[in-house]
Design a protein that fits this description.
CATH class: Alpha Beta
Strand content: 15-25%
Number of domains: 1
CATH architecture: Alpha-Beta Complex
Shape: globular
Distance between the termini: 31 Å
CATH topology: DHBP synthase
CATH superfamily: DHBP synthase
Number of helices: 7
Length: 184
């Protein structure tokens, strides 16, 4: 696993690779959400069941639009009141969004990030990215490059350099339609 600048990570993502990058609290693993082979590779790397779904992060609400279905004004207002920032919201998925992203649900977890390295990566790609905690399912998320290497070895193509945010735990996840907290 080698460290890389944003530009190098974008080339890896475009080629179907897996990239680790700093987020608000832990390292995230990402890939192009439109690349089924990359999604399958990511789920296998994490040993994560496809029925659970994944999170998408973006630099703007516009980057999430291709993935979202009908979102009512109240739900969107709830989300936008916390974005950009460390809040993940569950919204209706657009019909046809792959099960590899949404799991066994008709919704998708999404976040407009304010964390500079993650936002810069989304900006440079020009679209949303998968953002799942960098850990083998059931293990603690990686908070350092050494922890990434210990869990994944060469399974991650590159690591975007940068500092983690100040959050002590992964982002809060809420249902945008009800405001219900789904993950503390």
């Amino acid at each position: 696993m080698r460290e890389a600048r944003i530009e190098d990570a974008v080339r890896i993502l475009e080629a179907g690779g897996i990239v680790a990058y700093p987020t608000e609290a832990v390292y995230g693993l990402g890939c192009d959400p439109g690349n089924s082979a990359a999604l399958t590779k990511l789920l296998a790397l994490k040993n994560r069941a496809p029925d659970k779904g994944l999170i998408l992060i973006a630099a703007s609400v516009e980057q999430l639009q291709p993935w979202l279905g009908e979102v009512d004004a109240d739900s969107l207002a709830r989300c936008q009141a916390t974005w950009p920032g460390p809040s993940t919201w569950v919204l209706p998925a657009r019909p046809g969004v792959t099960r590899l992203l949404k799991g066994d649900r008709d919704t998708l977890a999404v976040r407009v990030t304010a964390h500079p390295p993650a936002a810069a990566l989304c900006e440079a790609c020009g679209h949303a990215l998968v953002s799942t905690s960098a850990n083998i399912s059931g293990s603690e998320p990686a908070r350092s490059v050494a922890e990434l290497e210990a869990q994944f070895g060469d399974g991650v193509d590159v690591v975007v350099t940068g500092a983690l945010g100040d959050s002590a735990s992964p982002t809060l996840i809420r249902d945008a339609r009800t405001g219900e907290v789904l993950r503390e």
